[in-house]
Here is the input.
Amino acid sequence: MSTVDRSNHDLRRDRVVARRVTCQTWKRRPKSKAGERVIALDPATVDALRGHLARQAEHRLVIGTRWPSRQTDWRGQARDDPVFTWADGTLVHPDRYTEWFAKERERLGLPRIRLHDVRHTYASVGLRNATGWHEVKVISQRLGHSSVGFTLDTYAHVLPSADVETAHTLARHILGDGTS
Here is the structure.
């Protein structure tokens, strides 16, 4: 489960919730320190998140003291105020998000992809449209990768046309544009 800095509208992905068959559990921390990060959100996402948090606050008022602010997993690890819960404040099983995504994808007539593939699409589109190394670095950081090298090794397949474009750009700069 991700936590939200409600004042700055940033998303801090340092906690993920999963449920075992009969008990809830928190997914371990990210694999690397780079995985614990704060990322900026676009205005549409901020608006959607604000709407979600407002609805959650309304549910919380209705539930009152029965709202489970602090949730503890079977190992005794506790977390406060998860952002994404059912209307009664209990945790949503991660598989439910996958089911919701599949139904919405189908309703919209989008190609069949897994929810996790959205992350790969995000990375691929970002890298394909990056105009400089600084943007590649930012994309790598947003993905929580430990290095730009890992990002490029993982997503290099989306950049083959960049080789041709780079060859032409370098030739123009080194050899001139041929108009002399």
User: Anything to note?
Assistant: The first helix runs from residue 43 to 63. The CA atoms of residues 85 and 135 lie 34 Å apart. Residues 117-175 form one domain. The chain has two domains: 3-93, 117-175.
